[in-house]
Model the fold of this input.
Amino acid sequence: MQKTIEVTTEALEMLEGLKSRNKKIFSKFFYDAEGSRIFQQIMGMPEYYLTGCEAEIFETYKRRIGAMFCSQCLSVDLVELGAGDGRKTRILIEDLLSENVNFRYIPVDISEEAVLQLGDAMQGRFPNLNIETRVGDYFNMLEDLSRDYPNRKVVMFLGSNLGNFNYDQSITFLEQLNAAMGADDLLFIGLDLKKDPEVIRNAYNDPHGYTREFNLNLLRRMNRELGADFNPDYFTHEPCYDSGTGAAKSYLVSNREQEVYFSRIDETISFRKWEPIYTERSQKYDLEMIHSMAESSGFKITENYFDNRQFFVNSLWSKQ
Ligand code: AVJ
Done:
């Protein structure tokens, strides 16, 4: 008889995607403690231009953005979805503190380790900062948003995190977000723009191999949490970018016919030779698409902020 070992519903959900005809693993599973650590390495490499562009925008426009968040208001709650290590948000927080704006910072992340680390780092750096960390995915958070934060709020959704969703999923999510927001709440969203495809390819197929490790961590995670026996060498990391749709996508392709056994739940998944697992979309946008997304989900664009090279945009939205 096999001993029963606790398997979380989260872990089981990972397996669900592998049972469908077109195998996939949902992107939220990238971010366990290990994946969050690898993502920090990705953000630190020059090829992954997104982080630097957004930081440049914040440095350039922080006072203007800060004033838009709260100039006459008594207090504001800054809710950041998928905060990660908060390295760019620091720039805005510093500005708000120096302007004596009365605000609370509420970073939300799916990785408990990441958000606890962020909380400690921020509190250490800014002892007067009023901070409340939360663990959860975007959808759990939506339910709590209007209930727990009835004050004026600015929802921040940075780093092109929305890009994990396809167009329809984005609209659905933005509509739900809109419904959870009050009449003078704001959405501050960071989106990666279409650009030279070579630049985009280098960001997702980096010479350091961090992105490959990030992708393969999904398999290692299933080994850890489901007792699976994935051999990462038997899967090929395939990043690709299509300028036509603006979708950068990542796959893990089985480079041989193989079976993988999940010992904790006694299940086997078979892979054909060259069968792909779809793991991620990182959508690149143009302004037309951004307009149409805002329009169709009940928002209007108040102001756009660009970096020097126009690689990235931070867009401030209010309710229609
Ligand atoms: C955190 C979802 C914005 O899509 O660019 C980085 C994740 N994946 N390199 C992105 C990621 C591969 C990132 N997001």
Observations:
- The radius of gyration is 20 Å.
- The chain has ten helices and 13 strands.
- Residues 49-69 form the longest helix (21 residues).
